[in-house]
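Working notes for the structural subgroup meeting. M.R. asked for a predicted model of this chain before we commit to crystallization trials. I am recording the input and output together here so anyone reviewing the notebook later can reproduce the run.

Input as submitted:
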Amino acid sequence: MIKKITTRILRTLEPRDKVYEITDTELKGFTIRVMPSGMLSYSVRYRLRNGRQDRMKIGLSTECTLEQAKDEARKILADVIRGDNPVESRRAARSHTLESFLAEEYWPVVLSKRRRGKEVLARIRVAAASLLSKKLLEVNAWTLEKWRASRLKDGVAAATINKDIAVVKAALSKAVEWNFLDTHPLARLKPLKVDSQAKVRYLDAKEGQRLLNAMDIREEDMRAARDRHNQWCKERNYPEFPNLRDVIFADYLKPMVLLSLNTGMRRGELFSLKWQDINLERAMLTVTGETAKTGKTRHIPLNAIALDVLKQWRSQSDGDGLVFPGKNGERFDNVKNAWKALLEIAEITGFRWHDMRHDFASKLVMAGCDLNTVRELLGHSDIKMTLRYAHLAPEHKAEAVRVLERAGNVVPFERAESA
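Returned structure, recorded in token form:
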């Protein structure tokens, strides 16, 4: 039977003694099978390039709507046009473990198309290590519920677990898109509740001063060590290393920290920053969409401290390529050891590199900067991310409450006289 399949038609279908089918007149190959029990099943027929015909089941009417089934049929037909056989892809999924799917199918695409591909893969390998040996079809909501319950018991933060599940869900989304899975097994798995208004870590005045002092102490230690080494070389007629007292900064760490504190840049954005992204004359720094976490370009005005740091750093660097080149001129991977040592000198605890971004935002809000401007400077895609700093502007909330007084909507209170 051939008809234009619509929602209205579905309501008129009656079960018969035998199975019968209806083929859509608009979407070629899209079919509904009506069972004697009254159950409806969606499927799609197609012809491969070699002329062979095949059919792929999409799902039952209780599992997806008509429009969802048609959308899936269009994806399957698009795969056929590209030369793929969706049925064979599904068979492959039955033999794939999560690890083999990631290694053979997902990772090559992620590494070639995603800027942070290596970080994503590393996160999956570490976070989902216990899941890698499972069959792809066995990675479902129940499996993930048990997995994250175990991690919560081990003391892993809910926010961290949510991020880990997000990368697994992204991988499985591709498995669905490429027809290794019929439906997304984690589509209904809700993230753990996280306190979005949790206290943010920033430096108080004393900590800030100790951090500045610690950077000076570290730099002097490096210069003294270089002096001793060069003296040793001089006594033996060996070539000496450049004198660190001839330059403003002993190495990269101090300018990196000062720039982070005064721009709120993410660590990855800082590591990828190039001199071509900085306009010293206009005192403007550009975080390009290529290096930004959100993929969107933003412009950050440079205050006097940030501008002075960049000018001084440029005077002692090549002034081309990466602003902070790592070993052999490559992009920095991390500065964990140098940062940890600096915090120990400053006697500061519980302060991550990323917290310098919080420090930047917090100081802006406490100085009266509106939240939307803070959002733009930080590059948040959603104002909800910026609202975590709202409590640092108590005057705004106090003023809002005083509106009631001016409007005369506050019930007067009279103190009871003592007997």
